[in-house]
Structure formats: C-alpha cells, structure tokens
Design brief:
Length: 249
C-alpha cells in the first residue's frame, strides 16, 4: 500500500523537479563564482601534490577545483532535490517538527506518516541517528495529542539500505532508493521514472555551468601563480606549505 493513496500527480512531480534543478544550479553556480584559491588551499594537503610530482600550476588548480565542485554539487543537490520531490510524490506537506521533513495524514486509517528525507544512506553517524530518533519521539507526542497512530520513516533518495536484524531495534523504518519511492507512490518503477521526469531540463543549464567553471579555472590559475609561483613560473613549495600549515602572522 502506498502512502499516497491518491496516485502520483505527474504535473506536480515535474514542477518539483524543475524548481529543484533551478535551485541546484543557482546555488552551485553561486558557489563556483565565489571560489578563491586561498580558501581552497587552506583545506588541501600540499604534501600530496608534491608527492605526486605536480609541477604545473594549472594541474594543481584543476585537481582542487574539480574536487571542490564535486563535493559542493553532491551536498547542494542532496539538500535541494529529494525533499521537494518526496513531498510531491507523497502528496504530503512540509513538516513543522524539527528533524522531520514531510507529514502525510491518512484520515481513513487515522495515521500520520512522519518522513525525514536524506540524500544517500551514508549520512548518519551514531550521534546524528540518536538526534533523529529524539526528533521522531518529539513528533510522536504531537500525533498522540491528535489521537492518531504514528509511523516514522527515514527515506534515502538513492542507494540501498538493508537491515540485518541485529543491534538495537529502532522506532522508525529506513528505506532507500527503490524501496523508498515505492513506499511513497506504490510504483516500484518510480525511482527510474525520476530520470524520465527530468527530461531535457538539465541540458538547459549546461552552457551556464561551463561558463562559470571556466571562469573559476582561469581565476584560480591566476591567483595560484600570483601567490605561489616564482617569477620564472616554478612553484614555490615552501611558500605553499607555509601558507597551508605555518603559524598565523
């Protein structure tokens, strides 16, 4: 049985995806446009680049820029894509309770679904799982006040989550990828249809993304040469390591 008993609203799904992609690219391009070499190199390991015998400034810049953008886009996409899509797929509403993203009320069954949407199944450590359980417990009190049954779910937008049956029992279900989207919609193929619902929307942003990335590459190359290269163009490793790891002046 699906959480959304009314069936998937295709128009709402497509609108949610369009809005999420717009937010994703707006946030990602803003991040890329603001990248500075000083901020990146403070967090990178200069000894690694020397150990790999990197002598070309542009090689280092491309390495750090690619890694920074990759990390940023994974975080930004996870934050802006899956929750609005899950709201549209479930037919629910944005939750007001802390640590809960979606509330779906089944009046026929006198049941409230409380759903926390996460990107992938590797987001939790022991402390964050404990906080999530506390948030579900707090939301359960509200359900009891409404004299409704309560079912908490952690849903992961992609990946697989298998329970071994070992360890401490939890008060919530964890569902990932196909299992999660099937729970919301009743459609075992919905997790594949998400790609189809995207259509050609991502291609609309390709030119803007490439332009932003190329500007960042040029900007960071210039900054790196100015800060960490000798007049003859060779890398001043002492200066780079001191900037990264030396005492603050």
């Amino acid at each position: 049985m699906a959480i959304n008993k009314n069936g998937v609203n295709t128009a709402a799904i497509e609108q949610a995806i369009a809005s999420a992609l717009e937010m994703f690219y707006a946030s990602l391009l803003d991040k890329i446009d603001k990248i500075k070499i000083e901020d990146i190199m403070k967090r990178k390991n200069p000894y690694l680049y020397r150990a790999k015998a990197m002598q070309n400034a542009s090689e280092i810049v491309e390495n750090v820029l690619s890694a920074t953008v990759s990390s940023s886009e994974e975080t930004i996409f996870g934050n802006c894509f899956f929750e609005p899509l899950a709201i549209a797929a479930s037919g629910g509403n944005k939750a007001l309770a802390e640590g809960v993203d979606i509330m779906v009320e089944d009046k026929e069954e006198n049941l409230i679904f409380a759903i926390a949407v996460k990107s992938g199944p590797s987001v939790f450590n022991a402390d964050s799982k404990k906080r999530q359980e506390q948030n579900f417990n707090a939301a359960a009190k509200l359900a009891r006040q409404a004299h409704a049954r309560y079912e908490p779910i952690i849903g992961y937008g992609y990946g697989k989550k298998r329970t071994s049956g070992r360890g401490k029992p939890t008060i919530y279900k964890e569902l990932a990828g196909q299992d999660f989207w099937r729970e919301l919609t009743g459609d075992p193929e919905f997790y594949i249809k998400i790609i189809q619902y995207m259509g050609t929307k991502p291609e609309q942003y390709l030119e803007r993304y490439r332009a932003s990335y190329n500007r960042a590459s040029n900007r960071l190359n210039k900054q790196f040469v100015t800060l960490f290269c000798e007049d003859d163009g060779s890398i001043n490793w002492n200066k780079l390591v001191q900037f990264n790891s030396g005492y603050e002046a």
